[in-house]
Design a protein that fits this description.
Elements lengths: L8 H8 L5 H6 L9 E6 L15 H7 L7 E3 L10 E3 L14 E5 L14 H12 L16 E8 L2 E6 L6 H5 L9 H6 L3 H4 L7 E7 L3 E6 L13 E6 L3 H9 L5 E2 L5 H11 L3 E16 L9 H9 L3 H8 L5 E3 L14 H4 L9 H14 L6 E7 L2 H16 L4 E7 L1 H10 L4 E7 L5 H4 L19 H12 L3 H18 L4 E13 L2 E2 L17 E2 L2
Parallel strand pairs: 1-9, 1-10, 13-14, 13-15
Antiparallel strand pairs: 2-3, 4-6, 5-6, 7-8, 8-9, 11-15, 11-16, 12-16, 17-18
Helix pairs in contact: 10-13, 17-18
Length: about 550
Amino acid sequence: MKHASGLSAAGLAAALALALPAAAAEAEEETPKHGGMLTYLIPADAPPSFDGHREGTFAMLHATAPFYSVLIRINPQNPSSTTDFVCDLCTEMPPPTDGGRTYTFRIRDGVKWHDGTPLTATDVAASWQHIVFPPEGVLSVRQSFYSMVEKVEAPDPNTVAFRLKFATSAFLPALASPFSFIYKKENLDRDPHWYEKNILGSGPFKFVHYETGQSITGERNPDYYRRGLPHLDGFKGIFAEKQATRVDALRSDRAAIEFRGLPPAARDELKSALGDKITVQESDWDCGSLVEPNHKRKPFDDVRVRRALSLAIDRWHGIPALSKVADVHTVGGIVFPASPLAATEEELHEVAGFWTDIDKSRAEAKRLLKDAGAEGLSFELLNRNIDQPYKYVGTWLVDEWSKIGLKVTQRMMPTGPWLEAMRRGDFEVVSTANCHGVPNPVLDVQRYLPGSVFNGNYGQFEDAGEVALYDKLLHETDPVAQRQLMRQFEKYVTDTQAHEIWVAWWHRAVPYRSYVKGWKISASHFLNQDLATVWLDK
């Protein structure tokens, strides 16, 4: 592999606010020290590719975010907010014009690519065109997030303008996606797939070396446009999919942090062993487990079978027990629980799989399977070969399904092959997740639309009624009406048609060496990963 060098937003923001540990808060008042190499752990194997526009996995983002710039982002000093957007490559956050249908950004002067050439608005526009209007044969996994965008253009070398088809509050959070790396237009023009295997950005660190599936290394970018940053001389990210390996590395100080998070038992083990040498930050997590049946594989083309899979799962009792050993935490519907658009517990009780009486629920599951001629069904669950929480959730689901007579085995695969198997439709049922950078419920639920609309859905189905219902939700601006539409959409997706089987929301706990400063946790393991503000107090 060759590489180049180099909704009520206010309510949601308040609900997500959390008190960080004293050590993290104190870091704001300390004077950062410059120098040193940060060694951190990436809890996965090799990323499928290096292309942020194509991928949706943290394995790619944690490895490559330090090399890139974005147009706007959530404030790295306030990453738990859902409304505090700040410029990265732009000079200031512009007010929308034309009734909320036009956003015009001025781009910083003097920004350089890591090869020394200047970055201009033309590169920014080309990158966003690659995301919103990808060329034929190019996968842009979040393309549907930008269905409101009519045009992206650079009228001059310092200006980028986004013209929308309709005004929507979902646009700015979508624009702040941490996956939306800015690429060099020259490279995209030469080969739209170039960034899948190569790295060249304008971020705080320059690419040095990648050892496939082992590690990735970066060095400080001396020409970075943010004065005084980054603090580090460089970093090394080590791929380590086994939790025991990661815990041992943190305990022995062979690595300082693992940004994704560890389960309660591992957190407590490290804190007990190392005392004040370990600091822990925790947060609700805008990420959750789900199961996706392949509608093209019989008998999963039958809604009765899909509903039975959900009805068999005892979420109300099982998730609290599972949370003692796994990252899962909160029983909820498909909307992030802290959001005003989320279902209440009483509303969830009306959805199949969330009934209060598990015996009644499983009796209904058995009846549906019998009616569908699928009693005693045997099938394979495709799962990601990552301990937290995939293996734990998968093992628990297999046991839950056995209680209605199903015989289920698991096929564990590394991240890359697991994604490719989903994209090919090479599975019967898959254990996966829905994770996002900025909580934005109206866009986050696009994950459950047909693959022709959201190309990160691998259920192999089409449903015009679902798309029409979502379109109403996307265009609705009244909070009360929007919430009612969300309830209809949620019940349709997880119950009426059971296209998706939602399992549980996760909880994020990040234990790390106390000498690591300048990093703040958020509701997403995708945010705040460029390492520009991180420094080492040693």
